[in-house]
Amino acid sequence: MRALAVRAFVGGEPVPALSPLDRGLAYGDGLFETMRLHAGQPVWWEAHVARLAAGCRRLGLPMPDAGWLRGQLQALCAQAPQAGVARLTLTRGEGDRGYAPPEQPAPGMVLSLHPSPPAPPADGLNLRWCHTRLALQPALAGLKHLNRLEQVLARREWNDPDVHEGLMLDGDGLVVCATAANLFAYVDGEWLTPPVDRCGVAGVCRGWLLAAGLAREARLRPETVEAAAALFLCNAVRGILPVRRLESRDWSAHPAVWAVRERLGREVPAFLERGPV
Amino acid sequence: MRALAVRAFVGGEPVPALSPLDRGLAYGDGLFETMRLHAGQPVWWEAHVARLAAGCRRLGLPMPDAGWLRGQLQALCAQAPQAGVARLTLTRGEGDRGYAPPEQPAPGMVLSLHPSPPAPPADGLNLRWCHTRLALQPALAGLKHLNRLEQVLARREWNDPDVHEGLMLDGDGLVVCATAANLFAYVDGEWLTPPVDRCGVAGVCRGWLLAAGLAREARLRPETVEAAAALFLCNAVRGILPVRRLESRDWSAHPAVWAVRERLGREVPAFLERGPV
């Protein structure tokens, strides 16, 4: 992973690297957050911290102090002011061999800074349907945990650079999301996005759109998505990304997409600078 | 994790530690094997290598040369002759940020040696039912991959040291396995074990039992397990472990368990030394 700066911690103390026996590596026993950086600051910081804390509660991990986290991130950002993306990985640290978590974990943490992703294509994203499905697992649904092999397998299904993302169905054949973004479909004059109570990630940009009253949750069938008046993907790093094509279906620019992008840019200035796609 | 010896590699070269940006940590993008050591040699080596190679094919990982692997393991075992367990972790190594795998991965690998687990209780294991279920994911079923949060959550459900293992159901309510072992139930005069085509791990001891013609695969309901004439768990480290209790149901020693343990000890001498439970 091209990183502009990296720092690792165990139990809050800086270390050269995590242990090769860290449970994050051994079992994917941990969580992560991927944040947009704007003017050296993480965008939607409170939302990222809230999701991390919720994940810690679900997994029984100790949540680091948010002020301390922010301080470490700021210090790292000072080393790489050109960075556009920060990743925070939190693990349960080392334990005895076996699945039983240690009673007094010394959590592992990695902070890394990365360049901004390439700008999206000016006329919107080209999507495909993935064959790999997301298993129904309510105990982990919504969390941004480290068990991401389903997404890796789905992303391995294509290497055509003209295909920008893949949409994934769940085990019941309902639409959930893209491999690294949430999906919104404009149906009968409103924006709909699949719930993430059985699988999928509760994305931070998705959460902003729902909290702003710009969309609501609804279970979506593939044919409803294909028949939608407009689609967009979103995530916390890239904001709202209009969709131009899904397999053989094409969409032209839709005012409902402009409306949500304009609102996002107005309320979260970090997303103003790209300008309309 | 208490380890007697550890060695890490990237692209086949020894390194002090894996990168904090290794995809094994970032996404659980990798596989592992846990092996019993006997007289300084890994037991069922060919079966472990075969499962690892099958996992590499499914995930699109390059499989390391088995002879090289064996040599590295031998060298490490020479440093800790008292070790009873070896773990091999293989990852896709570093890549760019995002799920797309690197085109030319330099795989990460960790070898670690550990003490033997404590001897099982002389009168058999005491089991519980876990609430956490295994999601149905045929794309990953059978593999010993690094996405193990379901097992971690299940193992977190109890900390009573008198409960030795928990049995897990799949999303459809069928019995699959224990958190770290396969399950066999003696029903109508034959040993049955759940298939691992939708979830669960194709355990190496389980594979030996099936290949020896001592058992066959069958989908099992919880009530069938509870009504079975005998149960055992098994894995590659601990061999065959008779079950004495599951929740409120008790079993006394059964000759069918003795028969398979005796056969295992005869054909795989590493399992002789413990003597009958």
Automatic annotation (TrEMBL), chains A, B:
Q: Got a GO cellular component term for this one? A: cytosol
Q: Give the enzyme's EC designation.
A: 4.1.3.38
- Tell me yes or no: is Lyase among this UniProt entry's keywords: yes
Sorted keywords for this record are: Folate biosynthesis, Lyase, Pyridoxal phosphate
> Which reactions appear under catalytic activity for this entry?
4-amino-4-deoxychorismate = 4-aminobenzoate + pyruvate + H(+)
Q: Name one GO biological process term.
A: folic acid biosynthetic process
User: What metabolic or biological pathway is this protein involved in?
Assistant: Cofactor biosynthesis; tetrahydrofolate biosynthesis; 4-aminobenzoate from chorismate: step 2/2
InterPro entries recorded: Aminodeoxychorismate_lyase_IV (IPR017824), Aminotrans_IV (IPR001544), Aminotransferase-like (IPR036038), BCAT-like_C (IPR043132), BCAT-like_N (IPR043131), Class-IV_PLP-Dep_Aminotrnsfr (IPR050571)
A molecular function GO annotation? 4-amino-4-deoxychorismate lyase activity
The UniProt record lists the keyword Lyase: yes
- This protein's superkingdom? Bacteria
Which NCBIfam families does this one have?
Answer: pabC_Proteo (TIGR03461)
Q: Which PANTHER family match?
A: AMINO-ACID AMINOTRANSFERASE (PTHR42743), AMINODEOXYCHORISMATE LYASE (PTHR42743:SF2)
- Complex formation: Homodimer.
Protein name, entry field:
Aminodeoxychorismate lyase
The lineage, from the top, is:
Bacteria, Pseudomonadati, Pseudomonadota, Gammaproteobacteria, Lysobacterales
- What gene codes for this chain? pabC
